[in-house]
Amino acid sequence: MAGAAGHHTDPMNLGRAVLVVVCVLALGWLAPPVAAAATPTQLVLSGADARAGDPSTIRVSLSSSGGPVAGAGVVVERQVGGGWQPLATVVTGADGTATTSAPLSPRPAENLFRASYAGDDTHDAATAGPVAVRLLLRRSVVTLTGPASFVDERSAVLLVGWRGDDGRPATGTVRLLRRTGGGGWRVSRAVAVGADGRARVRVAPRVDTRWRVETPRLPWLEAGRSDVHRLDNRPPGRAVRWPVGAPRPRIALPPQARATAPGAAPVVVRIPDRVWRSMVGRSWHRGCPVGRAGLRLVRVNYWDYDGYRRRGEVVAAAGAAERMAGALAEMYRRRLPIRAMYRVDRFGWSHRLGGADDYRSMAAGNTSAFNCRDVVNRPGVRSPHSWGRSLDVNTWENPYRSATGLVPNAWWQPRSHPRIAWRSRAHVVVRLMARHGLRWTYGRGDTQHFDAAHHGRVVLPRDCRGVVCH
């Protein structure tokens, strides 16, 4: 019985053992598994260079130490207006890459991209960027259009157009360049081109000109240049119509400055210092019968032979200046042309004449008045011009019959012209001169010459009474 009792199992102890085993098993089942560490990932973002408006391929590549990460969703964003906006969500392929596309903006700040991957149970989250995609420059298309001509003292409108070769308008400040005659190109002004790629420019050159536009380089656009636009300045008046075979003056004068004041705008002033310095030793010298105090400078607008308004001047005696100014002003009002009206001192000193070179003045067709000199082709005889009361008008077309022949040419002597050459007192120029007290003293003997009356009559030097004295 005792041996049998030694093998007896205590029910209490057996219960405790079962309870321990059950608890151990239960604890093993309920404890969470130990999580494995996520794998670091690398996200790479790149974009293909492109021109503004053209699509750029945006590429993402996601990988880990184990190789490409496939089937992952990557969010691609783009910067717009200073903030980030979603562009696309792409899913990586078997090689861990994915692509999308975006048209590039002409504004570089809007060609910034970034990408993000949120991660998963086995891969870390990752970001890439911002990455700037480079703009390739488009070609500039620059145009400059407008009228081919316009009338002097009016204006013309030039139209500027600026765009890329894809038609997209460009905006910014461009340079308008101008070229006159044989000179080089000069910047006329800066022109603001609007958002529509256009600008209007009003110009009013006084001569024939050529124009072009130069544009700067923009972040998306090459610098550009327009074709040359020619703009002819047409006269507001009527040009002289020449008789067949009419000779031109032997001396060519540069055109005088274009008139700016309206009308004839006659002005009579005392001789300015600058003018007097030019006269001394040419049209005036010691021994002349009238001095600076007795002379006046007459400035007046006139119509030239091409139909343009110009500003001319003559020197005259104080007592005759207003009459000459009045006569020349009436010629302007009646649109009777004058070839040129330079002071005669422009032509320099003449030893043959003992004064300013009237031979050259006539050979240029110049209109002039005071010149303290001898009579042309009569040495030693003082000319009536020495007193400043004589006016020679359109000298090339109205010759003088000198003691040795016709000056400055013989072709015009038997011919007249309704506007510029006169051979009788009935001509409009001779009649208007007479109304202003300027007598056509020598008629056909000196067709260009007029004398201002003094106290109602023309007073000639003693040696010129009864003979022609130019």
Short synopsis of the structure:
The protein is mainly β.
Describe the structure.
There is one protein chain. With 470 residues, the chain is mostly beta strands. It has 3 domains: 41-134, Immunoglobulin-like; 140-234, Sandwich (Immunoglobulin-like); 267-464. Helices cover 13% and strands 35% of the residues. The chain is built from 6 helices and 31 strands. The chain has helices at residues 2-6, 11-30, 273-279, 321-333, 358-363, 428-435, and strands at 41-47, 50-51, 55-64, 67-68, 73-80, 83-91, 97-103, 112-117, 126-132, 135-136, 140-145, 149-151, 156-164, 172-180, 186-193, 198-203, 209-215, 224-225, 229-234, 267-270, 295-303, 309-317, 349-350, 355-356, 374-375, 378-382, 390-392, 400-402, 405-407, 438-439, 449-452. The longest helix is centred in the N-terminal third of the chain and has 20 residues, at 11-30.
Task: List its salient traits.
Immunoglobulin-like; 470 residues; rod-shaped; six-stranded mixed β-sheet; mainly beta; disordered N terminus
Outline the fold blueprint:
Layout: H1 2-6, H2 11-30, E1 41-47, E2 50-51, E3 55-64, E4 67-68, E5 73-80, E6 83-91, E7 97-103, E8 112-117, E9 126-132, E10 135-136, E11 140-145, E12 149-151, E13 156-164, E14 172-180, E15 186-193, E16 198-203, E17 209-215, E18 224-225, E19 229-234, E20 267-270, H3 273-279, E21 295-303, E22 309-317, H4 321-333, E23 349-350, E24 355-356, H5 358-363, E25 374-375, E26 378-382, E27 390-392, E28 400-402, E29 405-407, H6 428-435, E30 438-439, E31 449-452
Parallel strand pairs: 2-10, 12-19
Antiparallel strand pairs: 1-3, 3-4, 3-7, 5-6, 5-8, 8-9, 11-13, 13-16, 14-15, 14-17, 17-18, 17-19, 20-21, 21-22, 23-24, 25-26, 27-31, 28-29, 30-31
